[in-house]
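Budget justification, computational time. The allocation requested in the original proposal was used primarily to generate C-alpha cells for proteins on the priority list. As evidence of use, we reproduce two of the resulting records. The first is shown immediately below.
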Amino acid sequence: MNGSAATWSTAREIPGVVLAPRQLRKTVSIALVVGSAFFVMNQLGVIMSGHGTQLVWLKAALTYLTPLLVSNYGVLSATRRPDTGPSTAHDNDEGVAT
C-alpha cells in the first residue's frame, strides 16, 4: 500500500476509484464491522424470534449497504481532483465572479 490513491474528476472515473482493491478492502471492512454492530442491535432479536419477514431481511441488507455507501462517499470526497479546466473568470471570497 505504498502507492498513492487513485483520484477522479469525472463520473466515468468513479468506479475505478471505489473498486480499486485498496479502497474496496477498506470500505467492505467498514461495512462489515459497522453493519454487523447495527444488525445485532436492530434486527438480530427479530430474526432469532422467528419473525424474519422479507421486510426485516431487506432492512438487514440496508444495514450493511448504508456504511458501505457512506465510506465510499468519504473515499470519493478525499480523492477528487480539482477541476483544472480553462476559466474565464475568478471567484472572489463571496463566490461572485470578478
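The second record produced under the same allocation is shown here.
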Amino acid sequence: MTCAASSHTLIASKPKSLEMRIVLQRVKEAYVAVDGVEVARIGKGLLLLVGIGRDDTEEILAFWARKIPELRVFPDSEGKFNLSLRDVGGEILCVSQFTLYGDCRKGRRPSFSSAAPGPEAKRLFQRFVELLSQQGVPVKTGVFGAKMEVGLVNDGPVTLILER
C-alpha cells in the first residue's frame, strides 16, 4: 500500500497488483506440523510463506522460482550478504499462506478477495513448488489448505517481503 499525505489527510491507495506475495525468512531450521504431526522439516535454508494472488501467471511463478535460490541473503566469511541458498547448500520450506492478502483497511475483519480462489491457488502453488524444485534445490512443503503449525529458528533475523 502506498500513502500520500497532506497537512490533514492521509490517503491510502490500493496495491498496484494482485500478484504473488512471498515472505522469505532465512532460518537455521524450520518445520510444519498438521494436527500435531510433523509433515516437513528443513535445516539451514529459507522458509517461504507464499500468497497466490488473482493476477498470478506462470511467468510470475517462474520469475520467483529462478530468483529465490540465487538471492544473496547468506553471509560470507566477512558477514556480508554474498552467498545464495545454492552456495550454502540450503533447503526451502514452502508454505501456502493466503492470509498474506488480508486487507484490513475497512472494517475489523480482513478481506481476502485479492487472493486467488482455492482451486486456482492450489494449482499455482503446486506449480511454484515444482518450478523451485527444478532449480536443483531441496524443497519441502506444508499441506495446502490445512491448518498448520509453522515453527522456525530465524537466522539473523533476516526477513524479506518479495513482491513485483
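A brief technical remark on that second record: Helices lie at 58-67, 85-88, 118-133.
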